[in-house]
Amino acid sequence: MQRTTASILAEYPQRKKELLIHILQEIQEVNGYLSVASIGEVSKHINLPVSRIYGVAAFYDQFRLTPRGEYHLQVCRGTNCHLKDSAALLKEIEKTLRVRQGTVRRDGKISLEVVTCLGACSHGPVIRINGEYHKAADPQRISEILQSLKETK
């Protein structure tokens, strides 16, 4: 059974504002992001203004207000990756895949996010695609990495 925002909210008591983050995490886990409709439902359920919920969602990096692409790329820009020229890697990804950081391509296939650290500092520069790490990534390997993803799908 596909879980909906309504079914998730049914598991939480009404008017419990202190459960907001847990509720948002669960909705995002199911839907992939927090939609305008789901935020409205949460607002009614816990009796909190929509603007406050958006404020919380915008404050925490873990929450997304837009859907991700079929392939979600994260480029690490932490100190070590920066020193190993992740800026050139990011630029090549944007050029090759025709997507800008922080956006989803029009066809919905690819989204691109810049992150502060992916926790693989000794292997930089690092990118993560749909949760899979690609270490020592370089601009020339981007097409190869994406091709391997298409083949395994």
Main sheet makeup: 5 strands, mixed
- CATH topology of the largest domain, by name, is Glutaredoxin
Strand content: 5-15%
Order of strands across the widest beta sheet? 2-3-1-4-5
Order of helices and strands: HHHHEHHEEEEH
Second rung of CATH, namely the architecture of the largest domain: 3-Layer(aba) Sandwich
How many separate structural domains?
2
Q: Roughly how many Å apart are the termini?
A: 24 Å
Number of helical runs?
7
Mean pLDDT equals: 90
What's the helical proportion of residues?
A: 40-55%
DSSP strand tally:
5
CATH class designation of the largest domain: Alpha Beta
Shape descriptor reads: elongated
Unreliable residue stretches: none
Short key terms for the protein model shown above:
153 residues; alpha+beta; Glutaredoxin; five-stranded mixed beta sheet; 13% strand
Provide structural commentary.
With 153 residues, the protein is an alpha+beta fold. The chain contains seven helices and five strands; from the N terminus they run ααααβααββββα. The protein has helices at 5-9, 20-31, 36-46, 50-59, 79-83, 86-97, 142-152, and strands at 71-76, 103-104, 110-115, 127-129, 132-134. Strands 2-3-1-4-5 form a five-stranded mixed beta sheet, covered by helices on one side. A hairpin with a 2-residue loop joins strand 4 and strand 5. Helix 2 packs antiparallel against helix 3. The longest helix is centred in the N-terminal third of the chain and has 12 residues, at 20-31. The mean pLDDT is 90.
